[in-house]
Design brief:
The protein is an alpha/beta fold and 593 residues long. A six-stranded mixed beta sheet has the order 6-7-8-3-9-10, sandwiched between helices. A four-stranded antiparallel beta sheet has the order 2-1-4-5, with helices on one face. Helix content is 63%, strand content 9%. Residues 1-13 have low confidence and may be disordered. The chain is elongated, with a radius of gyration of 35 Å. It folds into two domains: 18-327, ABC transporter transmembrane region fold (Up-down Bundle), CATH 1.20.1560; 342-427 and 545-593, Rossmann fold, CATH 3.40.50. It has helices at residues 3-10, 22-26, 29-60, 68-115, 118-122, 126-168, 170-217, 219-224, 228-281, 286-327, 391-398, 421-426, 442-446, 455-464, 468-472, 491-505, 521-535, 570-576, 579-592; strands at residues 350-357, 368-375, 380-384, 406-411, 414-415, 428-431, 509-513, 539-543, 555-560, 563-568. A hairpin with a 2-residue loop joins β9 and β10.
Length: 593
């Protein structure tokens, strides 16, 4: 469904998505109870004020007992004190509840997003997801806190004031009650328009945030190509679109507020005119009219503020729906209902059985077709071939980022789709070509796959990866911050930290994707020695573009168009004179020139 169609559908639902917050509210029944108690107490104190005013007007100024006026003013002061205290406590508990709910919601959404397979991220922008976790969650925090509290307060005051108006003067109340359906209809009708336009504004702002996140993360590339003006124009266009969408939403809310207030206070003026005539005719006391007018003002103010609050709730409804979409996103790759345990102890045997695969975004483009091969425990298998042959896809399938369209992948004889993702990935360590370094310490980066590792274990892994020497020279050693994406480190340093991370994981199946590609000649020699030691007694798959790095592999698989077209050792494949021999001749001749 397109975004436009989705927005049109969303516009017909009002604030229903906010009902998804109920499970979070149920977790904190005491806070909800305290908030409702002080909310009711504040409303009761507000509704008691007109009663005290009526008695003061009718009895405090008649001269019969002038001393009563002191008692009435004392009563008003007590009511005001109760109102102030209850309002303060209501604000505290309501805002506390909003902060608690949005914190839990953010945690749940983030935890769920972490479980989604790369298929989801293939079609989603990370900046938009972050926008939902920040901007949309902030709107929900307001809705779950102050906005919802104001809505309940105004509803209670409006209903209570209407009841007291009927009790005070049934005749005048009929005029007010006749205007209420018109006001409510306006709230509902305009509220839908507000929510639809607010959702459009949030979507547009998320697009702008996604572009900003992507551009800032790639700032070096942007500046290297003098791309600042182009980036500025694109971002300016995105935020201008967000402004126009927000302007439309604000305009709808302004119309909603104006219509509601004009209807409400227009009816109050009419009531005051009729009431004044009754006082002049002697059919109603001045205190009674004052009481009725105060209740009508309370009811009118409640409805008027409710129109504004309703617009905010409608806007929060759009934010809630965007977060609900993330929470209800289903990952096509998930644990089976009854996962099997992989054999223990692990041997590291790996088998691809007639695997075919096409990426979900391009279902008609076969990446792998009937691929079969196996790797014995402790064997080193190199995978080579031209770009686009499907080499890196093998690693994505082993880690179950995706599931094959047909065939089965087995580790230690078990189909990996029948085991849990955590159990599967605990058996695998990977050193990718595009190394991920987090904006935390070197220590935490190495220990990322094994957070319980001791400092001695981490340093031992770094030494094995030839990383300890340069780490010790950093300002704070292992406690040095790596910077966002490891920006403070060289490419070779990042690669060695990734190798140390894999060494520390100590998994039976090792995946190396050009693990030495970013190293200089001296570092490559040292790291290659460390990798050779690491490979012992482990099943290792090595993806290599530089054939010099796989000469010592037990076997070499040559891939082309998603199939294994040649298999053997370096010497045997050179003698065959096929694709591998051609690739080797091109690389080694170029190296000798």
């Amino acid at each position: 469904m397109s975004k436009t169609a989705t927005n049109a559908e969303n516009g017909r639902r009002s604030v229903k998505p906010l009902s998804g917050l109920l499970p979070y509210l149920k977790r904190y029944k005491r806070i909800v109870g305290a908030a409702l108690f002080f909310l009711a107490l504040a409303a009761t104190a507000t509704l008691a004020l007109p009663l005290a005013v009526r008695r003061m007007v009718d009895h405090g100024f008649n001269g019969a007992d002038a001393g009563l006026i002191n008692n009435y003013f004392i009563m008003l002061m007590v009511i005001a004190a109760v109102l102030a205290l209850s309002s303060a406590m209501r604000y505290y508990f309501v805002m506390l509840l909003g902060e608690r709910v949005v914190t839990d919601l953010r945690n749940d959404v983030f935890a769920h997003v972490m479980t989604l397979s790369p298929q989801f991220y293939d079609k989603s922008q990370s900046g938009e997801i972050v926008s939902r976790l920040t901007n949309d969650a902030a709107q929900i925090r307001s809705a779950a806190g102050a906005t919802a509290s104001m809505a309940l307060r105004n509803i209670i005051l409006c209903i209570g004031a209407i009841v007291m108006m009927v009790y005070t003067s049934p005749g005048l109340s009929g005029m007010v009650l006749a205007a209420i359906p018109v006001i409510v209809f306006s709230l509902v009708a305009f509220g839908r328009s507000v929510r639809r336009r607010s959702r459009a504004a949030q979507d547009t702002l998320a697009d702008a945030a996604a572009f900003a996140s992507e551009t800032i993360a790639s700032i070096r590339t942007v500046q290297a190509f003098n791309g600042e003006p182009q980036a500025n124009r694109r971002y300016s266009g995105a935020v201008e679109g967000a402004y126009q969408a927000a302007r439309s939403a604000v305009g709808a809310r302004a119309v909603l507020t104006g219509v509601a207030i004009s209807l409400v206070f227009g009816s109050v003026v009419a009531i005051l005119w009729f009431g004044a005539r009754n006082v002049l005719e002697g059919t109603m006391s001045a205190g009674t009219l004052g009481q009725f007018v105060l209740y009508s003002v309370i009811a009118a103010s409640g409805l008027g503020q409710l129109s504004e609050v309703w617009g905010e709730l409608a806007q929060a409804g759009g934010a809630a729906e965007r977060l609900n979409e993330l929470l209800h996103e289903k990952s096509p790759v998930s644990d089976p209902l009854e996962p099997k345990l992989l054999p223990s102890p692990a041997s590291g045997a790996l088998a691809f059985d007639t695997i075919s695969f096409a990426y979900p975004a391009y279902p008609d483009r076969q990446v792998l077709s009937g691929l079969s091969f196996s790797a014995r425990p402790g064997e080193t298998v190199a995978i080579v071939g031209p770009s686009g042959a499907g080499k890196s896809t093998l690693f994505s399938l082993i880690l179950r980022y995706y599931d094959p369209t047909s065939g089965a992948i087995r580790i230690d004889g078990e189909d990996i789709r029948e085991t849990s993702l955590a159990d599967l990935r605990a058996r695998v360590a990977i050193v990718p070509q595009d190394v991920t370094i987090f904006a935390t310490t070197i220590h935490d980066n190495i220990a990322f796959g094994r957070p319980d590792a001791t400092p001695d274990m981490i340093r031992a892994a770094a030494k094995a990866a030839q990383a300890d020497e340069f780490i010790q020279k950093l300002a704070n050693g292992y406690d040095t911050l790596a910077g966002e994406r490891g920006v403070t480190l060289s490419g070779g340093q990042r690669q060695r930290i990734a190798i140390a991370r894999a060494i520390l994981r100590d998994a039976p199946l090792l995946l190396l994707d050009e693990a030495t590609s970013a190293l200089d000649a001296e570092s490559e020699t040292l790291v290659q020695q460390a990798l050779e030691e690491l490979m012992k007694n482990r099943t290792t798959l090595v993806i290599a573009h530089r054939l010099a790095t796989v000469l010592k592999a037990d076997r070499i698989l040559v891939m082309e168009n998603g199939r294994v077209v040649e298999e053997g050792t370096h010497e045997s494949l050179v003698q065959v004179g096929g694709l591998y021999a051609r690739l080797a001749r091109l690389q080694f001749e170029a190296a000798n020139e």
